[in-house]
Amino acid sequence: MEARYLLRVLIFFLSVAVVLFFFVVHLPYAPTNTSELLDCATNSPWCTSKNRLQSKQTNILKEPPKPTRHRNHKSDTPHHPLDPLTIQELNKVRSILSSHELFQLSAYALHSVELEEPEKPLVLKWKKGDRLLPRRASVIARVNGRTHVLTVDLGTGQVTVHETGLHYGYPMMTIEDMTTATLAPLANADFNRTIIQRGIDLADLACLPISTGWYGKAEENRRLIKVQCYSMEGTANFYMRPIEGLTVLLDLDTKRVVEISDKGRDIPIPKAANTDYRYSVQEFNQVMNILNPISIEQPKGPSFTIEDQHLVKWANWEFHLKPDARAGVVISRAKVRDPDTGEQRDVMYKGFTSELFVPYMDPTDAWYFKTYMDAGEYGFGLQAMALDPLNDCPRNAYYMDGVFAAADGTPYVRSNMICVFESYGGDIGWRHSESPITGMDIREARPKVTLVIRMAASVANYDYIVDWEFQTDGLIRIKVGLSGILMVKGTPYDNTDQIPNQEDLHGTLLSENVIGVIHDHYVTFYLDMDIDGSDNSFVDVNIKRQLTSPGESPRRSYLKAVRNVAKTEKDAQIKLKLYDPSEFHVINPSKKTRVGNPVGYKVVPGGTAASLLDHEDPPQKRGAFTNNQIWVTPYNQNEQWAGGLFAYQSQGEDTLATWSERDRPIENKDIVLWYTLGFHHIPCQEDFPIMPTVSSSFDLKPVNFFESNPILRIPPNVEKDLPVCKSAASV
Amino acid sequence: MEARYLLRVLIFFLSVAVVLFFFVVHLPYAPTNTSELLDCATNSPWCTSKNRLQSKQTNILKEPPKPTRHRNHKSDTPHHPLDPLTIQELNKVRSILSSHELFQLSAYALHSVELEEPEKPLVLKWKKGDRLLPRRASVIARVNGRTHVLTVDLGTGQVTVHETGLHYGYPMMTIEDMTTATLAPLANADFNRTIIQRGIDLADLACLPISTGWYGKAEENRRLIKVQCYSMEGTANFYMRPIEGLTVLLDLDTKRVVEISDKGRDIPIPKAANTDYRYSVQEFNQVMNILNPISIEQPKGPSFTIEDQHLVKWANWEFHLKPDARAGVVISRAKVRDPDTGEQRDVMYKGFTSELFVPYMDPTDAWYFKTYMDAGEYGFGLQAMALDPLNDCPRNAYYMDGVFAAADGTPYVRSNMICVFESYGGDIGWRHSESPITGMDIREARPKVTLVIRMAASVANYDYIVDWEFQTDGLIRIKVGLSGILMVKGTPYDNTDQIPNQEDLHGTLLSENVIGVIHDHYVTFYLDMDIDGSDNSFVDVNIKRQLTSPGESPRRSYLKAVRNVAKTEKDAQIKLKLYDPSEFHVINPSKKTRVGNPVGYKVVPGGTAASLLDHEDPPQKRGAFTNNQIWVTPYNQNEQWAGGLFAYQSQGEDTLATWSERDRPIENKDIVLWYTLGFHHIPCQEDFPIMPTVSSSFDLKPVNFFESNPILRIPPNVEKDLPVCKSAASV
């Protein structure tokens, strides 16, 4: 016994040593030479992709090398007041901060360095050709366990604002926080012992940083994270191989293990077989080559242009587009051309994904805290990886890079983070045929071509595809697609007939020993609508059943549209109701069409889901912005993040729900519309090992904004304009 | 005075004579020589398009001639038990009937001649290569004011079934009914006098046949229709120029005017300016040539085949497709291939648009009755005009013709009624990237290519685009797009500031003197799901909030999936609820996946609307199939039309709602799922003069039907497989 024990300990420590050596070699350090860091995919240490996977499968299929495109952003300069900070500017911020007394202290991390957008009235007044507005950076830093918010004036080189100490939660994690958190448990002997006891080679370990949420005193005054791990032996899809029940609580600031909960020792680790989704590891005889090549072709090239790197012009639309570390994609100053006057008319000052809320529905020890806020905790934009040309976006897509700052302030480039492309899938813009009844020979139809702005954020396992789709008829469709990989739970069961009560499984048995846990997704959009100017009103156009008076009509009932203008915020806290429906308009009460209708846009909900959690449940307090599907607030530059600026471990004291409770006036004011898309997800076997995309969307649609159909005069397709193509092979 | 009066009368009668001559020349007669009638677009008298429009505008733009494609269907033969009747078979039916005693009487009209599908068990047993099942036609005829239902055996040449007299409503109108109804008022001097008094040249008159609905005794025992008219002076879009308040009640059998209601003499006819939507009449300088050519290209051609004219095979799907005079498109025997076993597995025995319900929301004299049932009254398929290649469907579309019978039994061809094409708009089938957190360099994405079956029915003014979209992941999306032209109301107002109470307008002022009246659209689908066989169950998987017990978890609540198997029909009368949501599964209780889940499909609602009319309102009684969004009934070959087989002037005594009230057992039975898509439409100025398409859809989605993601092994796009294109102009 004694000898065996010694041997065990020896093997254990040897293993730890090997693993530590392995990771230390790859540990993310702050870079020293900025000029080498211009493409994340190749240079930046934290984002270097060292493929740690040692697949034991024989790769049969060769994937062609991914096309990559490197733009040199070193000489980028800002042209528009809303342009994001350039590499030169980020370096300047870093240099200004480095001489600031706060950063003389040894340990600091910059959690956010981004443009502080100029005041809205200044931006509205600004025209191309005008002098650029003063450039300022907004910085959120952690220094010695405290959060600081600073404004750096790039013109004067001064820190002009410096606040600290009054915040509830914590800033969004840095990538460095996340990466080091996944490695930190390995410094703990108990943790390593458990891993080995579960039969896992430490070299096969993959760990994920899981935000803790806030559940009471235990989470107070410490920036915490939970880490759970998986075996990546035999598969790139380690998510399907959970080491169930093992949760490490870490202090994010000290990187020290606070507590290890180890409750799933009797739960086997699911097998690797059939979990890998990569094309390169599929057996050749299993590949389904079922479709001939198909492509969207534009022989004269796409119809959009991108001026000064960020100003997108397409058809009758024009808007400013930029990547953002937290929101992902930000659309600003969206304007559409009036076909009658030729004028570019304001539609939306700013629109972006403000927050996500993803509660899992398992209250047990290793699962209850999984109630992610993907933007405020992880950075929705930080998680948006390079898009894969021809597969994530079609052939003629333009790719836009993100330029962000690492924790030490060093700029880096996220290549191909956003794509812009024209889409035509065969849909019809408008049509009419005359039937033989009237004897006219009319067949008029117009193809529908749209412009799509896309990004895809991979927040660990899950992939969110966010599309902003602009239509020539003035409609903007905002679509969220869910794909990627489920967060699954290990179980001793390998067949449902062994399960006493399936309802208590908290999900679906997807494969032997694998449960797909039920969860929701909520994606909340900030939509600062400016319909022909900033002062707008929100109108609930209620569709009401009216009963006729006796003798009035052979009909007993009909529907009436009753317009209710929202006076204050509480009037605009909207829960959608199938049997008490409304249209929801944002109008400009001061501007009317020729026949007298106020110009407006409406938000048109698509399929959605509502959060059903108890309002007093801690995660729902933090995610209280999902208590309604629609909210309207008065414009306030400080109210942009629905879960609060400091969402990490927040207690729900600074959300859209708390702002709206102030019930401020919103009639004929500069107002912001908030819309939440929701999904309930009960996993099914088709989601294993990777999920076919599920999408939902909502629309912003002109309603009496134009005098008439704005695409009446677009021409039909004719044969002679379409391309002449050959299959590439035959060329 | 006397002389002036005489002159007026003279002018009036002269005009009438001219008009009558004009129409008589074009009056639809039954054709005599069948062989000349094979293309509706050129030969059949009723569907000949004699352009009655005499545009006074100068046509500036020349439209290229529409490509037409004529298939000769004279020698078509049936290959599959569900193939529609061929021209030869329709001629045989006509000849068999002509020797039947019933049709020796002088006046008769065939309202429906179509395949009587063989019994389902026989069809299920039938395999390609087997002898074709006996061919029978189902005929609905009106003879001397009575409705007859007959079965004609094409093998024996006998009428085997002949029923009459037990029907509530009337059969769907023939095209001849509709065409002659629009002309009949001209035989009435009062009508013509009114038209002339309103200042309309009789040659500019366009009239529409409007189903009357059923509102009580007045409609009993007479087949009635209402006719309303428009001025087409100066525009092809006469719908925008209503002669408001003038309604002619006609007896459809005698074609005689029963009553004229003329109440809108003080309402001006709206102007023609800016109403014409045809490309050819747009002024050149107004045309918006804003986009470069764009096309879906497939250099190796499309990936689908159509065997024996009706059997569509694409990717992993296979189904039978046919045009239908009433339903439009019928999809039968849809099967998807299991990627593991290679087996073609049953998904749906039959799916089609069963009925539409379109109530307008104006209870006044000229509007209250507008509560259309477009399939059962007008024939949704009969109204599906030829699709316009390159605009209604993209380049590589295949077009399928409809073969129908005219009122005298003569077959005719509706060319290009359905199109089949592959769609790729840039969407993603599935994807996953690894973030730097795990250090793996993974970017895997697969493009989403789908197969679309499309038809577009122009039920007078409105256009309904119905898409059945098949995805390789097993999902079927059923999408309805609304376009075409509004049904508008004349008004003296030309600005909203003149209107005392806009809520009483029953709609929106769209242009001077034009109100777009509020209305709803409901489209009810018949979906005979056969999940791996006919005996299936319907499961309401309810998503329920659970509160945790004190001390059980830091969480207070979570969601649980509670499965309720519907025992009888009333268990499956479903109203969707955002705050009490469910998934709705059709499962095969006898077949389980490897890990024990029952195989199934779920119906996934998209954005929808519910009918809010009073349940006792006459139109809602007839449209009671919209009282729920989902119903499930046991399979019954006689229950296919949600508003009843004889929907015209029905009283609601034979609808899906009445069948479902019988509360028959539906557990582990051959069941039919019914889903209703709904739209509330408050018109807006953008809908004038023609509406940009508005769409809504729902999905049939595999849920534990496959063992795992069925498209895991499809390959990504690579550059070398994509086409090489040139702009046509440069070739």
From TrEMBL, chains A, B:
Pfam short name (any one): Cu_amine_oxidN2
InterPro entries: Cu_Am_Ox_Cu-bd, Cu_Am_ox_TPQ-bd, Cu_amine_oxidase, Cu_amine_oxidase_C, Cu_amine_oxidase_C_sf, Cu_amine_oxidase_N-reg, Cu_amine_oxidase_N2, Cu_amine_oxidase_N3
Domain Copper amine oxidase N3-terminal: residue ranges: 171-270
Cofactor(s) needed by this chain: Cu cation
Chain residue ranges for the region called Disordered: 57-84
Stored Gene3D superfamilies: 3.10.450.40, Copper amine oxidase, catalytic domain (2.70.98.20)
EC id: 1.4.3.-
One GO process term, biological-process aspect: amine metabolic process
Residues found modified as 2',4',5'-topaquinone: Y462
GO molecular function: copper ion binding; primary methylamine oxidase activity; quinone binding
Domain Copper amine oxidase catalytic: 295-711
Catalytic activity, as annotated: a primary methyl amine + O2 + H2O = an aldehyde + H2O2 + NH4(+)
Domain Copper amine oxidase N2-terminal as annotated: residue spans: 80-160
Transmembrane domains' residue ranges: 7-29
Subunit structure: Homodimer.
Family of the protein in this entry: Belongs to the copper/topaquinone oxidase family.
Protein name, UniProt field: Amine oxidase
Species name: Morella rubra (Chinese bayberry)
Organism ancestry: Eukaryota, Viridiplantae, Streptophyta, Embryophyta, Tracheophyta
